[in-house]
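ok trying again, last paste got cut off:
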Amino acid sequence: MKTKKRNLKTFLIVSSILFILYFIFSFVYITYIDKDTSNSPNYKLNKVQSTVDTQTIENVITKGTSVSNMIEIVSKSVVGISKLKNNNTSIFSANFSTELGIGTGIIVSENGYILSNCHVTGEKYSSCYVTLDNGNVYTANVVWSDIDLDLSICKINVNGLTPVVFGDSSSIKVGQSVYAIGNPIGFEFRRTVTSGIISATNRTIRIQENEIDSYMTDLIQTDATINPGNSGGPLLLADGSVIGINTVKVSSAEGIGFAVPTNVILPVINSFISSNTFNEAYIGISAYDSNVIPYLSSSPRSFSSGIYIAQITSASPATSSDLKIGDIINSVDNIELYTMNDLKSYIYTKKPGDTIVFNISRGKINKEISITLGKK
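nice, full thing came through this time. structure:
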């Protein structure tokens, strides 16, 4: 009897010890071992993958929202431009093409300077009508224009406007996302937004009008949809900065449109903003880069940089200098030139009466030629 009691007592003691050990082991496992297991390589890999997926989704949402906000903000600085005061003509009107005549422009200063195409606003001293985001219509006077660039600046008597922000058009890359805003076919479709990429830079196109050839050079090519009413509107990067002014599309192909890079016009805009005037300096030459040479009937020798003088205007500063047709201008004041826009942009920073120095090539001869700029 005593033996059975002793065995029972031993069993209870052993069972109690085992239970206590089990409890201790479970506590240790839950507290330490399982925690370590959660940091095993397999678990960490799954955890990281989950985090990456979440971040990617969040980035896409944030990016999309940012672009939408950007478009909304910039659109308030986009205006309608018409040569007719009543720009509410329906696109379904039988005389739509002749009655409407609407294009696009962008606000570049708080006090009413508007940048657009010359073919939209008309040339200097002409007038047009500007419709703001709030629907108010104002008469605008064209204060500057350049037919070769197809750019113009007009002025309305309004203050408190929100100007666009310009980017550096010289640093853009093929493949970057861009957005175009404009009035493609009239007032009813104002501020239409299209998107695409930069397809190419430094493009040259030949324009034939009245049996006269002219060339637009250093253009930005994009596949963002551009229609006639988009002319004068902005070409934007994803951050909202304007790097081009939409000017023309190829009618015989889809997805090929062009914009004038904005860097060339910034000195003119800055002059108007700072002093409400711009005294344009004048040389009196027509020059082309190497991309235009294949179009010319009298093909000059090939060259990789510089610009080729194709014409010298009579009674101009260039006439009284030693410049000659066929010269290649390599640089101006030690600044290398690759396109005519490079030269224009630099001359826009000068004033009539300033002297510049060209380095030119004439056959195997290199020489420097000084020119005193005139007033255009």
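cool. The chain has six helices and 20 strands. The longest strand covers residues 192-209.
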